[in-house]
Amino acid sequence: MIKKRKIPMRVCIGCLQKMTKKELIRIVRTPDGEVSLDSTGKKSGRGAYICRKQECFKKAIKGKRLEKNLHMPVDEGLLNDLAVLLDKDKEVNGP
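Given the sequence above, the corresponding structure tokens read:
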């Protein structure tokens, strides 16, 4: 009998919906205290996930949900990088 592989599910901090890990962008706080984007999803540290929608990004920023999930303030540079990534994704995949 073939075992069915478990698909990891995570919650978006913007819309609070469960999605597969591959559908979301991971932001990680490393044990050194550095906050960065994790494109591989395998960096060690505390992670927060956000889906690829501008509305979710705006909700997460407005409610300071990113800071709450990572337990530390987030640099403006990282937020700008994330906004650029979402804009590029919007251009590729459409609205």
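The beta strands are 9-11, 18-20, 25-29, 35-38, 46-50. Try to locate this feature in the token string yourself.
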